[in-house]
Specification:
Elements: H1 2-24, E1 28-34, H2 45-58, E2 62-63, E3 66-74, H3 79-93, E4 97-101, H4 104-117, E5 120-124
Parallel strand pairs: 1-3, 1-4, 4-5
Antiparallel strand pairs: 2-3
Helix pairs in contact: 1-2, 3-4
């Protein structure tokens, strides 16, 4: 069920953001920043990135004719790494949608960056 909800959220958000990518004639870039090597790596980790890529592939790898690219990174359970990676991806790679968090500190840090940069952010698992 969680996989289906994530897939649905991914597809709806990507469809809504595709117009921005279509205007620039680029890929729709989705960033997943999660714990891949620390305390919560077994909750989502590399498997979460694999599941998201599978959802993208199941959807045909495109939304409104624009290719979807998934980027993933390890925040090491540290809020400063999560925030800096989110900021870097938005500023330099053109990420339009962020997923991640895993814990409250990293989720709040990513949410703040997403709000500042006017991007959509989906919290994966944090209770805050």
């Amino acid at each position: 069920m969680k996989h289906q909800l994530t897939t649905l959220a991914l597809l709806l958000a990507a469809a809504g953001l595709a117009s921005q990518a279509a205007y620039a004639q680029e890929k729709v870039k989705i960033g997943l920043i999660t714990d891949m090597s620390s305390l919560y790596s077994d909750v989502e980790g590399k498997g979460g990135a694999t599941a998201m890529q599978m959802a993208i592939d199941d959807f045909g790898g495109k939304v409104l004719g624009q290719p979807i690219e998934l980027m993933s990174a390890d925040h090491q359970n540290k809020a400063d790494i999560a925030a800096s990676k989110a900021r870097e991806w938005i500023d330099t790679a053109g990420v339009t949608l962020l997923f991640g968090g895993t814990n409250s500190g990293t989720a709040l840090a990513m949410a703040k960056v997403a709000e500042e940069k006017k991007r959509v952010y989906f919290n994966n698992g944090a209770g805050t």
